[in-house]
Amino acid sequence: MATYSKTIRDMHALVEEGVVPGISYAFIDDNTVQSGIYGAEQLLPGYEPLKENQYYDLASLTKVVGTVNVILQLVDEGRLALTDKVHGYLPEWTDTTVSVRHLITHTSGIAGYIPNRNKLPASQLHDALLNLHVGPDFEQKMVYSDINFIFLGWIAEAITGTPIQQLIAQRVLEPLKMAHSTFSPTDAAMCVPTELSPTRGLIRGVVHDPKAFVLRERCGSAGLFATRDDLVTFEQAILSGHNSPLPDQFRQQIAKDQTPLGHQGRSFGWALLPVNDAHPHQCIWHSGYTGTAIVLDLVTNQGLVFLSNRVHPDAPNKPFLARRNAVIATYLEEK
Q: In this protein, which residues make up the domain named Beta-lactamase-related (predicted)?
């Protein structure tokens, strides 16, 4: 097992150089896990050191930890097909070209502007999203968008009659015994805070993402809170295939490009890391706006959990992105 000394050094540097307040991390090698924490959970309005077993707002990791697995389970059960058109489940969406595959690979081309989007009540935001249009990027370009996974959540709800966040709890969190994962934290003090917002104050124990904040249980793009150790449980299930929330037929395909044109760098929800001399086979990964990321290597049964609160105290903290990518690159070289 690697010691990951260079990766740990680079993660510590993020804290020491003020890029993020603190980090929680874990390296997975089959059944062996090396984990740690470093830095602070909060800087403002007062300093608080980071503690073990705290909950992080996972932001877009919700997509691959939750929604992807629900959708592919429904496909595996024969209740949905990747070729099915969105219009068949969401008739208010009048376009008849966009399919489930387009949504799950971010190749739908859905575009448009919603005035005051983050201030609309849930019903109005729902209607506004369904009145967006398909632009010229349709099928030709991978353009990452929360809207794709919001639509996927609504499709799952249309099939089952159950909101997507409840489905994620029932179909992913409970079977894996991820008891420290929830969409509704009961103790804000156990949650790592995100942004110190001029309008919302210190956001702690409540989802940071504005669309998820409005749509609540009907949002499949963000909203999940989890501990580092629960994410280790999730990654080990995917890596081993034991009690995996990802159906086996899709587990065999998850590290391959699944876009309509076959070369746009996206699998079922997951992003594909570049293959190069240092790392000659395909790994998958995903990140979250709040400063979270997970990496999986299904060939070597290795994984990385990286959690920070990048948006505390201020968003968007753009310098973080290049530094996070560098940490992942170091990890891939070192593992």
A: 11-316
What angle separates helix 5-16 from helix 319-334, to the nearest 10 degrees?
A: 160
pTM for this one? 0.98
pLDDT tens track for 167-177: 999 999 999 99
Measured CA to CA in angstroms, residue 243 lies from 88, 172, 233, 247, 269 at distances of 32, 10, 10, 9, 20
Query: Alpha-carbon distance 44 to 70, whole Å?
Result: 37
**Residue pair 289/64 in contact by the 8 Å Cβ criterion:** no
Whether 167 and 149 have beta carbons less than 8 Å apart is answered as no
Helix (H) or strand (E) holding 98, with range, is: none
Residues 156-205 pLDDT 10s:
999 999 999 999 999 999 999 999 999 999 999 999 999 999 999 999 99
Q: In what order do the strands lie in the sheet with 271-272?
A: 48-49, 32-42, 22-29, 302-308, 292-297, 284-288, 271-272
Nearest to 309 by CA among 66, 63, 54: 54
For the chain, the structural domain boundaries read: 5-334
Report CA dihedral (261, 267, 268, 269) to the nearest 10 degrees: -110
One-letter amino acid of 122: A
